[in-house]
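Researcher: Checking consistency across runs. Here is Checkpoint protein again:
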Amino acid sequence: MKFKAFLTDNGINLLEKRILPALDKMGRICHLYLTRDHAFFLHNLLAADGVQSVAQFKKESLFNDYRISSNNDDRIAFSVDLSLLHRALRSILAIYADSRDFNPNGLLIKLVKKLPPNSTQATPFLTFEAKGYKSAVVQDVPVSKPLSRADVQELQLAVESCEQLPATLVMAPDLNSLQNCVDGMKHVGDVMGVSVSKYGDLHLQISTSLITLGAEFRKLKVLGERADRVTEDEGLSVQSRVERGVQRGDAMSVQVSVKHYFKCLQCSLAKPDCVFVGIAPQGACLMVFFQFFVPGTRVTDKSFSLHCRLPVLDTGST
């Protein structure tokens, strides 16, 4: 199997300044999954628990002269330490920035096998290479042995399952406000109730034997299935409105780990333009989508995407 490409300036900036810092907060180890048309950074997709994250890129958003081949339908996947990957990229950029004339296509990245010091067996590395004035500079990042055909297929099926959207998504309020809210809640308890309604309400609540702490965001932008607000509910308490919405099928509620939710919101380091929250069918998981606009516009950038799936601890009424 072979992989070789050139990271473009846009790809370098996207990874080095936004995506890798955000993904590193999700966990140091992830799968890098490469296909003919896309590159994926995947967290926990083959695990039974924990926050799952999917960062998907069209090859053109990161690379020039993208070449991949394998006997598994030109698909390659392996595990990589994101902190090592980020460190190697930052390290070689100093040389690359000063020798652009020698690297017209971009920063070379390739999958290779090398013999480590004091070893008799070659192991795989993801290698960055930039040509300097006098010599080439190389940074090697150790990676796992490429996944087997069966494991790659399992990963592909997991990616496809993550593409199933909730029926209703609401646009979360200002990300800093949401982070501060969840940050305060994580000091109160471990389990948070999240409710999403078809009329644009997002309700967060955490309860213990001593205290109940909640936050409600109303009249948010809705994507997908919508419903009209019920006038008779307006005079009710928040909890009563949520319960009646769930009973009518206008809302869904689930319970998730506060720490999982806070970790997910660390993806703010990727500098998204807005965030949408929804609950998967049958309350299977809580999904958080980070939306990015084409710079200088309000048009969604479809060249890359990032979203998280939070496991449900105890499904509420659906």
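Researcher: Does this match what you'd expect to see?
Model: One thing to look at in this run: Residues 261 and 310 are 7 Å apart (CA to CA).
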